[in-house]
TrEMBL record:
Top EC class, one word: isomerase
Natural source organism: Agromyces seonyuensis
Keywords: Carbohydrate metabolism, Isomerase, NAD
InterPro entries, sorted: Epimerase_deHydtase, NAD(P)-bd_dom_sf, UDP_G4E
Family: Belongs to the NAD(P)-dependent epimerase/dehydratase family.
Keyword field contains Amino-acid biosynthesis: no
Keyword DNA damage: no
Name listed for the protein in its UniProt record: UDP-glucose 4-epimerase
GO molecular function term, any single one: UDP-glucose 4-epimerase activity
Catalyzed chemical reaction(s): UDP-alpha-D-glucose = UDP-alpha-D-galactose
One GO BP annotation of this record: galactose catabolic process via UDP-galactose, Leloir pathway
Cofactor dependence: NAD(+)
One matching Pfam family: Epimerase
Length: 326
């Protein structure tokens, strides 16, 4: 028996794969490598290169590897780009999820952990987001994740699917020097690339209603996130009660200014970030409560801000050194 991890060659997915293996659970990775990396998947892990839109390939893999559950991370994850590519976003995230659910139904696979997103909340008007906070997604990406949750809930009612969806904000850090965030749209990779090329990082606005004037966001360590996915999978497979949705949040958050200070402190690279204009639609503060996930999944943000920065920086430096060695 094994669990399938869709998107398991990506930054988050590859950490989930390692977390499963640490628990002694066999996994099979399905990834089309559109944004993932084959090198992120351990050589002894079974790997299927396929899009989740290919239902027959999913069915074959489920049958061949005796899959009993799925952690679904595959998808198009760039909220900003989704505004320019809505049809592509819906095809990958909505049609892809429907394709996966159909394959699971065909093969009798009834356990699912869905990697959703806090983007479903849009710009909440509360200081602390809970699972009951109204959902107002502001991009095709956020909308596609909410639709994915609806599809899964409907299938749960129709076919007895045991499931939960995990919503989270900004994922950072690294659990292994072999794995790092390669997204061109995320804060840590953007700042690291700027520093490695001799540039000066930039903050978009410093006049927000926060203690230091910069936006406050929820940052969680990728290894803690991965552990929560596995805990949810184990709870579902054991038939234990589980909520349909959990927020994975820190409860307090960090400002962009604090992130910049931590990066300078940890890397030893002194810099004063440039201050640019605000970006349209950036709220002052978005932070989520993780109380439900702490109760049921043992969720905790176990890494300090400096530890998050240090692990991410070490992994990025290791990648840079490996590229030079090649």
């Amino acid at each position: 028996m094994s669990w399938m991890v869709t998107g398991g060659a990506g930054y988050i997915g590859s950490h989930v794969v390692r977390a499963f293996r640490e628990r002694g659970i066999d996994v099979v990775v399905v990834d089309d490598l559109s944004s993932g990396h084959r090198s992120f998947v351990p050589g002894d892990v079974r790997f299927v290169q396929s899009t989740i839109l290919d239902g027959l390939a999913l069915e074959r893999a489920m049958e061949q590897y005796d899959v009993t559950g799925v952690v679904h991370l595959a998808g198009f994850k760039y909220a900003g780009v989704s505004v320019q590519r809505p049809l592509h976003t819906y095809q990958q995230n909505v049609n892809g999820t429907a394709s996966l659910l159909a394959a699971m139904a065909e093969r009798g696979v009834r356990n699912l952990v869905f990697s959703s997103s806090a983007a479903v909340y849009g710009t909440p008007d509360v200081d602390l987001v809970t699972e009951g906070t109204p959902k107002h997604p502001e991009s095709p990406y956020g909308e596609s994740k909410l639709i994915g949750e609806w599809l899964i809930a409907d299938q749960g009612r129709a076919a007895g699917l045991r499931h939960t969806s995990l919503r989270y904000f900004n994922v950072v850090g690294s659990g292994s020097e072999e794995l790092y965030d390669t997204s061109p749209h995320n804060l840590f990779p953007i700042v690291f690339e700027t520093l490695l090329t001799g540039g000066t990082p930039r903050i978009n606005g410093d006049d927000y209603a926060t203690p230091d004037g910069t936006c406050v966001r929820d940052y969680i360590h990728v290894a803690d996130l991965a552990a929560a996915h596995v805990a949810a999978a184990e709870r579902i497979e054991a038939g234990e009660p589980i909520e349909p949705v959990y927020n994975l949040g820190s409860g307090d958050g960090s400002s962009v200014g604090e992130i910049m200070s931590a990066i300078s402190r940890v890397t030893g690279i002194a810099f004063e970030p440039e201050i640019g204009p605000r970006r349209a639609g950036d709220p002052d503060r978005i932070v989520a409560s993780g109380e439900l996930a702490a109760r049921d999944l043992g969720w905790a943000n176990r890494h300090s801000l400096d530890e998050m920065v240090d692990s991410a920086w070490q992994a990025r430096r290791a990648a840079a050194e490996a590229a030079l060695a090649d």
